[in-house]
Amino acid sequence: MNDLKHILKRCLASDRNSQRSVYEFYYGYVLKIAFRYMEDYQQAQLVSNDAFVKVFQNLKQFDLDDNIQILELRFKGWVRRITVNTALDQLRKNATAIDYEAISDEHWNISDASAQTDSKFLYKELISYIKELSPAYQKVFNLYVIDGYSHAEIAEMLGISISSSKSNLFRAKEFLQRRISEFFETKKS
Questions:
Q1: What is the DSSP string of 32-59?
Q2: Are 92 and 105 in contact (CB under 8 A)?
Q3: pTM of the entire structure?
Q4: What digits encode the pLDDT tens for the residues 85-140?
Q5: CATH code for the part of the protein at 4-94
Q6: What would be the CATH architecture of the domain defined by 105-188?
Q7: Under a CB-based contact definition with an 8 Å cutoff, are residues 151 and 165 in contact?
Q8: Which residue, 100, 99, 104, 129, is CA-closest to 114?
Q9: CB neighbourhood size of 68 (10 A)
Q10: Which of 96, 108, 133, 167 has the maximum number of C-beta atoms within 10 A of its C-beta?
């Protein structure tokens, strides 16, 4: 975006063209984040639009006093956080009882085979496998692995214990490793 600071200042003044520019520039980014959490594309679109409403409503809280490179990085991170929180809010609204399980500490000593994953594995397949996870596992996996939250932050966001967060991540990784192995086995055949 050419002059993000100028465009955001115009957004603060409720300039619709500037808001449209921000929306169009960041829409794909926001939609990808929302889609990781939501059941289908239509729900992801709704979350994306809600996230943009929140971005524009709360833009006055965002500090515009950085140089352009830092401003762009901070703004993108701020938009990501709003999108994740909007998706989680929507999931909470729609949630019935999601089962968050805890496992004992000895299970954490198992080696992680995910470091051997072939780099040719496509993003599309990974997202489709993540969509196969239970809602509880999916949320924790996305928050920890993709969005970089700590187990303590996840526990607070989801209202679960830290050990439940770790357990759900462990089981999600275990499932995904199995699905990825199956994918590569079928590619060899």
A1: HHHHHHSSSHHHHHHHHHHHHHHHHHHG
A2: no
A3: 0.67
A4: 999 999 888 765 444 444 444 433 433 333 344 444 567 788 888 889 998 999 99
A5: 1.10.1740.10
A6: Orthogonal Bundle (1.10)
A7: yes
A8: 129
A9: 13
A10: 167
